[in-house]
Write a structure and sequence with these properties.
CATH topology: Metallo-beta-lactamase, Chain A
Number of strands: 15
CATH class: Alpha Beta
Order of helices and strands: EEEEHEHHEHEEEEEEEHHEEH
Number of domains: 1
Strand content: 25-35%
Largest sheet: 7 strands, mixed
CATH architecture: 4-Layer Sandwich
Helix content: 10-25%
Number of helices: 7
Shape: globular
Radius of gyration: 16 Å
Distance between the termini: 39 Å
Amino acid sequence: MGLKATPITDDLVQLTRFGLVNAYLVREEDGFTLVDTMISGSADGIVDAASGAGGSIVRIVATHAHSDHVGALAALADRLPDAELIASQREARLMAGDRSPEPGEAEARLKGGIKKLDLSFDRTVVDGDLISSLRVVAAPGHTPGQIALLDSRDQSLLAADAYSTLGGVATSAGPYIRFPLPGLATWHRPTALETARKLRALEPSLLTAGHGPVRRDPIQAMDEAIARSA
């Protein structure tokens, strides 16, 4: 299935398919929080990776509605019926097929493959909410309702597609020559740049992204990425 599981810290395992797209297992006292599900066909490998890491998946967080992040969500919901399904209210609406804008939202065309799913989320979250040890950080721009997650235990940042790290650290505020896909799929670039600055201000100890390797001590690289995008 081409899935690789890489322990990053005692509480974090990176899951990667084909060296290109990532999901993450975050260890909590009651089991794993799975952050994103990668592309379709990943469900069996994700469940096996959780078992291999010594736990089971008790909740699944979708950071945003693009199909390379929620491609296996429906299959996992079927396989893990007791797992809590979580997303932002805005992205849950997108995944239900409702593309109407929010009042006051930037006028821009949705890009990338928005995945329509026939399922209901158990919980929708907003900026500042807690998902066990993870604090929700609103991270719009790449999509209207994308969220990032900050681990309160060690300041690890799960940035979704607000940043990518494949070929170097980049924001999704525009195409990065070494890996342009996140920038090309971004809904509203000025908002994406604002989000990149917001996440950098959190001073994370570790940066994870939807695409690319984990970066430790990422502040300088984040500053350079923001400067390129400005």
